[in-house]
Write a structure and sequence with these properties.
The chain has helices at 3-6, 37-60, 68-77, 79-113, 115-130, 133-144, 149-171, 176-184, 189-226, 234-243, 247-275. It is mainly α. The longest helix is centred in the last third of the chain and has 38 residues, at 189-226. It comes from Winogradskya consettensis.
Length: 287
Amino acid sequence: MNAAEDVLTVTEPEPELIVVPPVRRPMWRPGLGFLHPRMWLPLVLMLAVLATLWTWGAHSMPYLLPPLGDIGATLREDADYYLNNAWVTLKEALMGLGLGLVAAFVLAVITSEFPLARRAIMPVAVILNVTPLVAIAPALVVAFGFGAAPKLIVTGLICFFPILINTSMGLRAVPQPVLQVYQTVNASRLETLWYIRIPMAMPYLFAALRIVFPLSVVGAVVAELSAAGSSAGLGTAISLASSMNRLAAVYASIAILALLGSVLLLLVTALERRVLHWHESRQGNGG
């Protein structure tokens, strides 16, 4: 008998194919459902605590905090007045934000592509960021008149610096091996920018937008308060109400501003979830 025939050949059994059913996402997604208890329960608790503290403060310090009923009555009686002024402020905020966003994004691309431009532009941007914009608002009024231009410029400058810094960091955050791969296939600078640098910068950009979207409302109010000749907007409403010692009207305008900022923050968060669904920060986070 051949020795090779004496060797027992052991064959491993073929592994059984295990079919894993696809993961079905629930129709109710807690990450996006604003009516889910995870979303509204903390808000209700916060509002309840705030209302309790406000009621106590209104009784002990009526010269500082008006009763919530007075604020609600002011909003009901002058609803059209506050809606019109809120619309003016919202338009100024969004237009100023758009102005600052476009300017900051273009400059971020330029500074990321050209180191010499970065060394020339960044010091000027830092100086603009630390300059009190309330101080230069009168100069803007002299230069551009009493229209909407000074308010848009002030709002855009307030939103400009966070977008510039974050986007510039994101455009330069591409790992060097990835850039080397694109260089080996002779990708142009424009292709590298479009397919690698801008997608890499999107999380950084949205991190800045979550700051500047609510901040744009603050910028519009600051512009209305500091720019002479302003005749509409919630900032003007606050100025007029405070000059007439109408404390409830002042807090009514502040409440609408807080609501506008919160809505803008929710909108940019929802947009971020939609655009950055591929990013690792959204994996396993209901996004």
